[in-house]
Amino acid sequence: MFKGFYTATTGMIAQQRRTEMLSNNIANASTPGYKADQSTVRAFPNMLLSAIEKNGKANLQNGFNPMSVQQIGTLGTGVYMQETIPDYTQGQLVQTDLKSDVALVDEYLPVRGDGSRTGGLYFRLQTDGQEAYTRNGNFTVDSQGSLVTSGGNYVLSTTGEPIRVTSDDYTITEDGRVLENNELIAQIDVAYVEDPDRLIKQDNGLYYTEDGNELTSAYDDNDIAFSMRQGYIEQSNVDAGSTMTEMMSAYRSFEANQKMLQAYDRSMDKAVNEIGKV
After folding, report:
1. Which residues lie closer than 8 Å to 23 by C-beta, 6 or more apart?
2. In this structure, what are the phi and psi dihedrals at residue 39, rounded to the nearest 5 degrees?
3. Considering the entire predicted model, what is its pTM?
4. For residue 59, is it left (φ>0), alpha (ψ between -120 and 50) or beta?
5. Secondary structure of the chain in the HEC alphabet?
6. Residue 209 confidence (pLDDT)
7. What is the pLDDT of residue 98?
8. Could you tell me which residues are beta bridge partners of residue 104?
9. CB contact at 8 A, 207 and 200
10. What residues contact residue 160 under an 8 Å CB cut-off, 6+ apart?
11. Cα–Cα–Cα angle for 155, 200, 140, nearest 5°?
């Protein structure tokens, strides 16, 4: 009886965490460059139940009493949400006509050795602690003329320095070169990671490497093709319609496990307060 309590409870916890993840996706549906999280739900190992009884025969001389074993079947022990994995597919581009907005467009990325997924491209940023990466190209120019993110992180050039402009008359070409009065002042650096799943996702659309080492530049790999679009931003890749459907499904699953838990509770109440008096 108590195994049923645990099984239903694990189902409720898994669906609650899944609902929280989907709610975060919906909340960031309009965040530029946001990558939707996906969950993987797995089951705990099943238990094999068997009935062990005496076979009715007399004990042997060595004192061994043979028993008969009859397999009943397996018993599920519940589920859990194993991990969340971002969906790194590119979002749609939206025209803003703002000079500081830049969209990073994936044209061709090499497929990983196992053939499962491609790598990822990111703008390289300078933060207080270490180098960070983002797909959010909703940049601005601060009071010192530096190109920064909404969180105040500097956008780095291929030389590793912040990009600074002295006027509003600047242009960003498709290959990331920043031209001011038709003169080259910098080139926006783009970092490449072979396995995006190894990045650590943080707030404000930032990513960090697990070991703290810097990613390689995409300009150093001739097999990678990409471009930039000035005056555009990359939208979130959250599908609001399907996400709402998944939230309703998670809610219904939570509700079903809740009903099961209530049924077990009524059965235990009857066993303790009624059958126990007999």
Report:
1. 247
2. -110, 155
3. 0.79
4. beta
5. CHHHHHHHHHHHHHHHHHHHHHHHHHHCCCCCCCCCEEEEEEECCCEEEEEEEECCCCCCCCCCCCEEEEEEEEECCCEEEEEEEECCCCCCEEECCCCCEEEEEEEECCECCCCCCECEEEEEEECCCCEEEECCCECEECCCCEEECCCCCEEEECCCCECECCCCCEEECCCCEEEECCEEEEEECEEEECCHHHEEECHHHEEEECCCCCCEEHHHCCCCEEEEEECEEECCCCCHHHHHHHHHHHHHHHHHHHHHHHHHHHHHHHHHHCHHHC
6. 92
7. 93
8. 228
9. yes
10. 189
11. 20
Q: Which residue has the higher pLDDT, 98 or 83?
A: 98
Range 5-35 burial, b when 16+ CB lie within 10 A, else e:
eebbbbbbbbbebbbebbeebeebeebbbbb
Q: Domain segments of the chain: what residues?
A: 2-84+239-277, 93-234
Tokens representing residue 52 in the block: 């062990």
For the residues 205-232, what does the mean pLDDT come to?
92
142-160 pLDDT per residue, tens: 999 999 998 899 999 999 9
- Identify residue 233 by its one-letter amino acid code: I
- In sequence order, the 6+-apart residues with CB closer than 8 A to the CB of 2 are none
Token couple for 270: 């009857």
